[in-house]
Every structure is written in structure tokens, then in C-alpha cells.
């Protein structure tokens, strides 16, 4: 997560191998869609047109709690990669890349107060949009940020001043979404902070309040205290299905949505790592970014590199069948899970881009055979709920 608690995050990164546990299968409800073959009639749209229409309809999602509403793109541009460790970011190139993503319909950006210059880049970008793009595009652009405070007393002035910093950096009167994170549940100050954030929302400084890396128990407590949370951002991938065991059920009961990160596991879920052997030094691609190193540890906890290769081969077969890439299949699979509103793909702004793969997600429909084949592999892995704990617990282990 962030610089305010690097030692906590580093503790997770440096964990020894988790204690192996035999896999216990759990009931996972999965929304699957059958492919329908529609006869072409003289006055009916072509299948290609119907796919395009479906893709357009599935592109955005409305997050809602009471009168609070925010529509986002279902594939979000994650900006953790601006915080260092992924290569030097040039400001002008980064902003130009953000414009390219927005122009392609990928207009929701996720950042945090501690993601290096992310909020500042957004401020420059949104001003470019205001000056250089039609109002219709500006209306679709969303900037979601996070606040990760130190464990100090959550006074009204401290919370307000912290939020004002993000508003200035992002150059917006009101934050589209403020996603709140808290490191230590034994300190009940998170409720004080959230109540102050709710007041700031009432003053027009925040449009929607959300959480990041909160577990199911704390989400329930927060909702019971009347905090109008619209979403919870959690780690969720084909390998890490923990959010579907407890969190999704509560979300479906309350209307809270999930925004997922780690969905392509920092790039591990891609053709680049297919048929590689990381046990041989320098034989495969380097795990040379913080995200690759983080999610490699998740692979080890889940079932190891050999099982992961089996998963990649299965995903490649599915991808070839639909004419898409492995990351596209990985994101579509998670977007089809209950309560998931959107999934994040990290962007290395100005260094590489994934616009084509990201947009392919919207027209991809996984059929029952695809889902069955994927589950045959994932069911061989360990139950990460038992290995790690509930959503966000990986950040709170000492």
C-alpha cells in the first residue's frame, strides 16, 4: 500500500512460505453467460453489431448508496505504477498516455495520496481534458483516489486538511471518490475518520466514499454505523478468489460493489510468463517490479509455479478460442463474479500501453466450457481464505 506504513507492507512481502494446507473446495457462485447464435434476418442487426452494442452497454457501472452515485468504467487504469519501481515516468509522456486511454473510452483512473506523483499527473491531465476535449468526454472521466492516514487521532481538522491536499493536487472541487484505508483494526479511529469524511461529502468536497482493503467484518460495522460506502477495493484474481467467499455475499445484501486490483497479478497472468521456469536463474523473465514480486508470493501461497503454468496454458487455450489475450480472459473472468463493479489494470504511463487488450474485455463472453476448464485448474489450488485470511488481511500480518 503506502509510504505511511511501509513496514507493514514489507512484512507481508517478506513472509516465509505460508503453511501448506490441503485444498478445501468452497461453493463459488459464478455468473456465466451462454453464447447465443442468433439467426441473421434482413431487418435484424448483425452478430458483430450486437456484440458491439453489448460491449458498449457493459462498459460502465453505477456505484450507488442512497443518493450517492458514481458511474465508472468497468476496466480501471491503476496508477500504482507511478510510485516508482516500474521505470522512470516522464510527466509529459504520462499525461499524453492518460489522454490516449480516455480517448479510447478507458476514462476511470485509480490513484492514491502516496502513489508518487499520481494525483499531480491527474490534475494536469484533467486540465488538458477541460481545454482540449469535448464536454462529453469530460463528463465520463473519473478520478478515484485513496487516503491512507497514519495512526493518529482522527480529528475533523486533520481529516479535512488531508482531503484538501488531494483536491488541490488533482485540481478538482470535489473528489469523485475517496477510498479510505486503515491499517490497525484495534484502533477504532477509522470510524471517526469515516464520519468526518461523510461530513465532508455533505459539504460537497467528496462525491462518494469507499474503502480499500477492508475485511467483511469491518465493512459490516462501518455500514451499521451509517457510513454511505459505495465500494470496497480488494485484491481479486483467478488465483485469489477470497472476495467471493464472504465479502461478495455481504456486498450483494447491502448493494456495496467491489473494485478489484491484482486482477492480472502484476502481469504474471500473461503470455510473457507462459512456459517459463523460474527455478532456473536467468532462464525466464525477470520479476523486476514490486507488483511481479508481490504476486509471485501469492502464486507460491496458492499452489506454486507448476500449477500456475497449468493455469496459464488453460487460459491461453481460452484466449486463442476467442482471439484475445490471457490478461483479457483474466479480467473478464473476475468482472463476471458477483458484486464486482470494475477491475483494475496497472498502467505504466508513457512506457507501455494495453488499450487494445483492455477494450477487448468488454466484448468477450466466456461460455460454460471456458469457465469449467478454468475452474478445473483453480480448484487444485489452496484455499487462500484459510492460508491468508479475509480481504486485506495480507496487509495486517506482522
Description:
The chain has an 8-stranded parallel β-barrel, surrounded by 5 helices. The protein is built from 15 helices and 10 strands. The chain is an alpha/beta fold. It is globular and about 55 Å long. Helix content is 40%, strand content 13%.
In brief:
By secondary structure, the chain is an alpha/beta fold. It has 15 helices and ten strands.
What brief labels describe this structure?
globular, alpha/beta, 40% helix, NADP_OxRdtase_dom, Flagellar radial spoke protein 5 isoform X1, 398 residues, two-stranded antiparallel ribbon, flagellum, 8-stranded parallel β-barrel, cilium, disordered N terminus
Topology record:
Layout: H1 6-13, H2 47-57, E1 60-65, E2 68-73, E3 75-78, H3 91-103, E4 108-110, H4 118-132, H5 135-140, E5 142-147, H6 156-170, E6 177-180, H7 189-202, E7 209-212, H8 216-224, E8 229-235, H9 247-254, E9 257-261, H10 290-302, H11 305-322, H12 326-335, E10 340-346, H13 355-360, H14 368-378, H15 384-387
Parallel strand pairs: 3-4, 3-10, 4-5, 5-6, 6-7, 7-8, 8-9, 9-10
Antiparallel strand pairs: 1-2
Structural Rg: 21 Å
| Termini gap | 15 Å
Mean pLDDT: 86
Please identify the oligomeric state.
Answer: single chain
Query: Which strand order does the major sheet show?
Result: 3-4-5-6-7-8-9-10
Total helical elements: 15
Domain NADP-dependent oxidoreductase: 76-376
Protein name: Flagellar radial spoke protein 5 isoform X1
Keywords: Cell projection, Cilium, Flagellum
Pfam families: Aldo_ket_red (PF00248)
Amino acid at each position: 500500500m503506502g509510504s505511511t506504513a511501509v513496514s507493514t507492507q514489507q512484512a507481508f512481502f517478506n513472509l516465509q512460505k505460508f503453511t501448506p494446507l490441503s485444498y478445501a473446495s468452497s461453493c463459488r457462485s459464478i455468473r456465466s453467460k451462454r453464447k447465443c447464435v442468433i439467426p441473421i434476418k434482413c431487418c435484424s442487426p448483425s452478430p458483430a453489431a450486437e456484440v458491439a452494442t453489448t460491449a458498449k452497454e457493459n462498459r460502465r457501472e453505477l456505484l450507488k448508496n442512497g443518493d450517492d452515485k458514481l458511474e465508472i468504467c468497468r476496466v480501471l487504469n491503476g496508477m500504482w505504477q507511478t510510485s516508482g519501481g516500474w521505470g522512470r515516468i516522464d510527466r509529459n509522456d504520462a499525461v499524453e498516455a492518460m489522454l490516449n486511454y480516455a480517448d479510447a473510452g478507458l476514462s476511470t483512473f485509480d490513484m492514491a495520496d502516496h502513489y508518487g506523483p499520481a494525483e499531480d499527473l491527474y490534475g494536469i491531465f484533467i486540465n488538458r481534458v477541460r481545454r482540449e476535449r469535448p464536454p462529453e468526454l469530460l463528463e465520463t472521466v473519473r478520478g478515484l483516489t485513496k487516503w491512507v492516514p497514519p495512526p493518529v487521532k482522527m480529528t475533523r481538522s486533520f481529516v479535512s486538511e488531508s482531503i484538501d491536499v488531494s483536491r488541490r493536487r488533482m485540481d478538482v472541487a470535489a473528489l469523485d471518490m475517496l477510498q479510505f484505508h486503515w491499517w490497525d483494526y484495534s484502533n477504532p479511529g477509522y470510524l471517526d475518520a469515516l464520519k468526518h469524511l461523510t461530513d465532508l461529502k455533505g459539504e460537497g468536497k467528496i462525491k462518494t466514499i469507499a474503502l480499500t482493503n477492508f475485511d467483511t467484518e469491518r465493512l459490516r460495522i462501518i455500514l451499521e454505523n451509517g457510513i454511505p460506502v459505495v465500494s470496497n477495493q480488494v485484491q481479486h484474481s483467478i488465483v485469489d478468489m477470497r472476495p467471493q467467499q464472504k465479502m461478495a455475499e455481504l456486498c450483494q445484501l447491502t448493494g456495496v460493489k467491489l473494485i478489484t486490483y491484482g486482477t492480472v497479478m502484476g502481469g504474471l497472468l500473461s503470455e510473457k510468463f507462459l512456459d517459463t521456469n523460474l527455478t532456473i536463474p536467468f532462464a525466464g523473465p525477470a520479476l523486476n517490479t514490486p507488483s511481479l514480486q508481490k504476486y509471485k508470493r501469492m502464486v507460491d501461497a496458492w499452489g506454486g509455479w507448476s500449477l500456475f503454468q497449468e493455469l496459464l496454458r488453460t487460459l491461453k487455450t481460452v484466449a486463442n478460442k476467442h482471439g484475445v489475450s490471457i490478461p483479457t480472459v483474466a479480467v473478464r473472468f473476475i468482472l463476471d463474479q458477483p458484486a464486482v463493479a470494475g477491475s483494475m489494470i496497472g498502467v505504466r504511463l508513457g512506457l507501455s500501453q494495453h488499450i487494445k487488450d483492455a477494450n477487448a474485455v468488454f466484448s468477450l463472453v466466456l461460455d460454460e466450457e471456458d469457465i469449467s476448464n478454468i475452474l478445473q485448474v483453480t480448484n487444485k489450488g489452496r484455499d487462500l481464505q484459510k492460508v491468508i485470511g479475509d480481504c486485506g488481511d495480507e496487509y495486517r500480518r506482522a
